């Protein structure tokens, strides 16, 4: 998956289109978390340092109707970017047209323009999200080269990534994109062994593709979270009131057969009578009693998983081990985080929105080699799928 990066092309004096991920949380027009803007800085600064003219654009939230546009302008993002860069950033409240073209033509080397939320184009026939060819062509016409640094949307073919690239404009990856491909790609395709995958979260149905892709690649696959109980049912173990996907039980059986002893299921669960942090908890080995639901892996499972993890050289983790949002059911996820934090010589990667949030919330974010910024995109990369946004970047 060797792709050209921003370091492989000449940027001096060029109009550089940069698809960034500025999809930040906003409340009443105020940015509540600017992590994504900061994460885009290395690529932006590089373009400016090289003497390029940066034309930045991104989606922000979902926009389907005219009313949806309220509170989804990139204007506050452009302001914050100006502060972070310590230089003037011109914001154009349009996604096309004369004002935008003039602003771009007036750019000096090292200058920055941010234009409006690409999804504002969705109000009129979903042009961005449906990869309208004319829109992609138009945006491509505004620049000389295209840098795609938005990994989070790489699993979608939109006008602002695939549309622009498919016009034939030189297309390269930014630093964020490069990092994601490198870490997730290498972990899955050429892992240092043993490679241990940890899969959890709510449902098997979300993770089937990942499990199937990783069975031949991983040395061990540890299962936790809500999907445990669909596997339990497949093995004829009682699950009480636990989450189960009845229509996925046969598939779970198949996965158990295919994976053999690579697949490791929890040996105990932390349970409660209700999906609540306010009721007493119990620990059960194997079967979950009829009036209980399994909401976290139990202490023996944490020990079992920690033991397997201690020799790992590559760890890929997707999906929390329990309902970590409630303190009563966070210990399994914390235990696995601790086991990973103890590894000194391993590449450890988290992909998945909630898993990344869990690691951050529980205070382990800095213990991982890489926390993926793209939930859906990292999942699809773990599934071994080709991401259209990535495929559209020129090969080295
Ligand atoms: P990710 O976003 O990392 O891919 P998922 O979205 O698949 O993860 O799953 C995360 C959710 O799974 C969390 O909100 C968590 O509360 C829930 N979950 C974990 N374990 C259980 C369980 N035993 N029962 C019900 N929900 C669970
Ligand atoms: Mg999720």
Automatic annotation (TrEMBL):
<feature type="binding site">
    <location>
        <begin position="59"/>
        <end position="62"/>
    </location>
    <ligand>
        <name>substrate</name>
    </ligand>
</feature>
<protein>
    <recommendedName>
        <fullName>Phosphoglycerate kinase</fullName>
        <ecNumber>2.7.2.3</ecNumber>
    </recommendedName>
</protein>
<feature type="binding site">
    <location>
        <position position="207"/>
    </location>
    <ligand>
        <name>ATP</name>
    </ligand>
</feature>
<dbReference type="InterPro" id="IPR015824">
    <property type="entry name" value="Phosphoglycerate_kinase_N"/>
</dbReference>
<keyword id="KW-0067">ATP-binding</keyword>
<keyword id="KW-0324">Glycolysis</keyword>
<keyword id="KW-0547">Nucleotide-binding</keyword>
<keyword id="KW-0963">Cytoplasm</keyword>
<dbReference type="InterPro" id="IPR001576">
    <property type="entry name" value="Phosphoglycerate_kinase"/>
</dbReference>
<feature type="binding site">
    <location>
        <begin position="21"/>
        <end position="23"/>
    </location>
    <ligand>
        <name>substrate</name>
    </ligand>
</feature>
<dbReference type="InterPro" id="IPR015911">
    <property type="entry name" value="Phosphoglycerate_kinase_CS"/>
</dbReference>
<keyword id="KW-0418">Kinase</keyword>
<feature type="binding site">
    <location>
        <position position="325"/>
    </location>
    <ligand>
        <name>ATP</name>
    </ligand>
</feature>
<dbReference type="GO" id="GO:0016301">
    <property type="term" value="F:kinase activity"/>
</dbReference>
<feature type="binding site">
    <location>
        <position position="294"/>
    </location>
    <ligand>
        <name>ATP</name>
    </ligand>
</feature>
<keyword id="KW-0808">Transferase</keyword>
<dbReference type="InterPro" id="IPR036043">
    <property type="entry name" value="Phosphoglycerate_kinase_sf"/>
</dbReference>
<feature type="binding site">
    <location>
        <begin position="352"/>
        <end position="355"/>
    </location>
    <ligand>
        <name>ATP</name>
    </ligand>
</feature>
<feature type="binding site">
    <location>
        <position position="36"/>
    </location>
    <ligand>
        <name>substrate</name>
    </ligand>
</feature>
<feature type="binding site">
    <location>
        <position position="119"/>
    </location>
    <ligand>
        <name>substrate</name>
    </ligand>
</feature>
<comment type="similarity">
    <text>Belongs to the phosphoglycerate kinase family.</text>
</comment>
<comment type="subunit">
    <text>Monomer.</text>
</comment>
<dbReference type="Pfam" id="PF00162">
    <property type="entry name" value="PGK"/>
</dbReference>
<comment type="pathway">
    <text>Carbohydrate degradation; glycolysis; pyruvate from D-glyceraldehyde 3-phosphate: step 2/5.</text>
</comment>
<feature type="binding site">
    <location>
        <position position="156"/>
    </location>
    <ligand>
        <name>substrate</name>
    </ligand>
</feature>
């Amino acid at each position: 998956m060797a792709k050209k990066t921003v370091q492989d092309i000449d940027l001096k004096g060029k109009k550089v289109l940069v698809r960034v991920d500025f999809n930040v949380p906003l409340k009443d027009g105020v940015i509540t978390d600017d992590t994504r803007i900061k994460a885009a800085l290395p690529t932006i600064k590089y373009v400016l340092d090289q003497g390029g003219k940066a034309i930045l654009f991104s989606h922000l939230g979902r926009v389907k109707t005219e009313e949806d546009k309220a509170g989804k302008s990139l204007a506050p993002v452009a302001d914050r970017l100006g502060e972070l860069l310590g230089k003037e950033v011109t914001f154009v409240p349009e996604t096309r047209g004369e004002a935008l073209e003039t602003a771009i033509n007036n750019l000096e080397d090292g200058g920055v323009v941010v234009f409006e939320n690409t999804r504002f184009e969705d109000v009129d026939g979903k042009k961005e999200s449906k990869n309208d060819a004319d829109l992609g062509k138009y945006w491509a016409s505004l620049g000389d080269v295209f840098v795609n640094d938005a990994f989070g949307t790489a699993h979608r073919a939109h006008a602002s990534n695939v549309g622009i690239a498919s016009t034939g404009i030189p297309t390269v990856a930014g630093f964020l994109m490069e990092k994601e491909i490198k870490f997730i790609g290498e972990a899955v395709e050429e892992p240092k062994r043993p490679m241990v995958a940890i899969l959890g979260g709510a449902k098997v149905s979300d993770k089937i593709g990942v499990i199937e892709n990783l069975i031949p690649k991983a040395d061990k696959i540890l299962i936790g979270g809500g999907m445990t109980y669909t596997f339990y049912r497949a093995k004829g173990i009682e699950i009480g009131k636990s989450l189960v996907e009845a229509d996925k039980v046969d598939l779970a059986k198949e996965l158990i057969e295919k994976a053999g002893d690579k697949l490791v299921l929890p040996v105990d669960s932390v349970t409660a009578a209700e999906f609540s942090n306010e009721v007493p908890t119990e620990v059960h080995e194997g079967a979950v009693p009829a009036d209980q639901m399994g909401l976290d892996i139990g202490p023996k499972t944490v020990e079992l998983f920690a033991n397997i993890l201690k020799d790992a050289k590559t760890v890929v983790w997707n999906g929390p081990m329990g309902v970590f949002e409630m303190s009563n059911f966070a210990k399994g996820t914390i235990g696995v985080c601790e086991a990973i934090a103890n590894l000194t010589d391993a590449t450890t990667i988290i992909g998945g929105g909630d898993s990344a949030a869990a690691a951050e919330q529980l205070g382990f974010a800095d213990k991982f080699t890489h926390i993926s910024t793209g939930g859906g995109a990292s999942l699809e990369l773990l599934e071994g799928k080709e991401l259209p946004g990535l495929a559209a970047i020129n090969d080295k």
